[in-house]
């Protein structure tokens, strides 16, 4: 392997496209595949080779990065890629796949001789575009020389949580962090919906809490998206957030922890999606407070 690993990016949606772009800009050789090829095509201008199949993308690659919808999608796509995977390559699994499928993902890696890195990321579209994600990573020390340039290109910081990707320590931390993200987003939507219902100007609410311990950046960010009607393009879509809320509820249940807020959040997101907001930013969970569109 040369100093700069060859990286295959499987999945160039909101996050994967931004990550692939930063890998190109860091001088890595990038091949990208996406189910909907049109979304990968713009990466060609950055120097990436766009492929028609996952197998073509991973052939001979030093690092395979998966950034797909969920764990089942990852398994499906990796099975398609399987004949061309190079034994000894590193697999950086960054999709938010939760903790349940980690055993299957790690088993796939073992079967195909891949070094498995459980490596979800914290941060949304804008930090992804700026190469300033936080990578939560667990995986063997042996392959770190190959994965470090990848993590450095997509993230501002890598938080190592262990050396055994199969133990899922990074994915478990990611679920904990996302439970906070989703709770804040849901509370933001409900608070603004209540303000609307009660005829309270949201600016009065912000003036009331401004600068105090109840104020926070994420509240401001998600309120801004909603009040300034910037729901599309989404940074984190309603349907993807619902998927994460359900992963959190399921993980809690498996460990004997009841999560009422996450459960209600999943239902609010599902209702917003049914109202037609599925591809909008998750701030659109706000609309679940009303019968109609708003
Ligand atoms: P996205 O834009 O919807 O991308 C999803 C990707 O999965 C697309 O490449 C999509 O392909 C692909 N995909 C979906 N179903 C597929 C299938 N059956 N077969 C093959 N490919 C399939 O979502 P995203 O926001 O980038 O999220 C990607 C992952 O990162 C998710 O696990 C999400 O939870 C996680 N994440 C997101 C954020 C965020 O803020 N957005 C932050 C951290 C982590 P098509 O283009 O063909 O649909």
From TrEMBL:
The keyword Magnesium does not apply. InterPro entries: 6-PGluconate_DH-like_C_sf, 6PGD_dom2, 6PGDH_NADP-bd, HIBADH-like_NADP-bd, HIBADH-related, HIBADH-related_NP60_sf, NAD(P)-bd_dom_sf. Residues 7-162 form the 6-phosphogluconate dehydrogenase NADP-binding domain. Residues 168-286 form the 3-hydroxyisobutyrate dehydrogenase-like NAD-binding domain. Signal peptide: none annotated. The keyword Oxidoreductase applies. Keywords: NAD, Oxidoreductase. GO terms for molecular function: NAD binding; NADP binding; oxidoreductase activity. The active site is at 174. Pfam families: NAD_binding_11, NAD_binding_2. Belongs to the HIBADH-related family. This is 3-hydroxyisobutyrate dehydrogenase. It comes from Streptomyces malaysiense.
